[in-house]
Task: structure prediction
Amino acid sequence: MKTFLVLFALLTLNSSNLFAQWQTDVRLSDFPISSRINPRVGKNIASNESIVHAVWDDARHSTEREIYYKRSTDDGISWGADTRLTNDPASSQLSTVAVSGNVVYVMWYDLRNGAGEIYYKRSIDAGLSWSDDIRLTNNAGVSSNPSVTISGQFVHVVWEDETIGNYKIYYKRSTDGGTSWESDVQLTNNSAMSWRPSVSVSGSVVHVVWTDNRDGANGEIYYKRSTDGGSSWEADTRLTNDASFSSNCSVNVSGQVVHVFWNDDRDGNFEIYYKRSTDEGAGWSTDIRLTNESNVSNYPSVTSFGSIIHVVWEDYRGNVSEIYYKHSTDGGLTWDEDTRLTNAGSFSMYPSVSVSDSVVHVLWEDFRDGAGAEIYYKRNPTGNPTAVENIESEFPSEFILAQNYPNPFNPTTSIQYAVGSHQFVTLKVYDLLGNEVATLVNEEKSSGVYNVNFDAAGLSSGMYLYKLQAGSFVETKKMILLR
Result:
């Protein structure tokens, strides 16, 4: 145990340096016609393991905009060719992307039917091939600004819809991985306008936030949740309560902790604000101001893994907009200093952030190359240190299996272990009947300290066992999946 505590202390000491390893900007698009990121609440980048997916819209083939896609299979080091996902005479824009394993979902706003509808397509082979376009909405009014999230076979989509006279928040789900879809559900029902929704899911609990002006001319942030996978919904919860304008909210959940970010001008100009819930949305903290500058900070995008939270936003403190970044390693209790990610002297706008393994990925729209915008990307290969393999260079002298964190968890947790000498290592998860439910490690490992992530999205609540075996060393510990 003493050895493990020393190694953990060394990891904590070194992790502050890991967040600073941002690499150079990479231009992903290269066309004379402007390429655009969704400026609302959609996520334009998503990642799983070493595969990174990026989407945007541009008008390279006509006067109307189409949806384009690009992927990297080596954690953002190199990128493949652009893939045109839409091909119709009308405009397709406001795209967003989500990923679950090898299944990728891209949704967008499309004018091919007149008023504007939500369309989607999916890939079941990590972006190599794509389905036909699928129309998700069929209403008399405009349906736009989709946001999508995934939990196992459940796909959850929210959007804004003006069919009944002003914009309301609507919801739709698929319980079979996007093969079929249930009917639309109207989530808001008041005389005012509700717009720009964002959705996130952990297990069976679905979280939705949006901007709402039911309380007067100013917008406020509202929240709604479902605890049964979208079958039923609780009442609306007002998250902000000030005389200024609160908008452009983004939600992300890790286990039972829900994180909500938005921009707010209560202090004279727009700043980034944050609040969290530690009980799956039942109760909420006070508002926390994350930026404190004389110029505008807006359009936050958030992602998290365990207790590490990453947020990016567009910031005008240098008189033109640049992309800034901030992180917390303790679930949002404290935050590091702002990090400026771009310094091009042009307008860098509308960032999206994603993490996979140890890598933090950021995508944005940038005007540095001329009159039109292009899509740019930046990565930090060690910015998510809870997922870093071989996280300590000191060689341990013994084998150790640590308790997973967080525990209980929902649905992801991190398991740390130490390998005392070069061995073939297995780390497996079992249910209480002894059935193997996951193999996390099954390979030779050199001496070192390692972390591995376990995603239990497809498993039911309960106690599970995880066992480390390396040579003659065998140790088993318990962990609790609590939905």
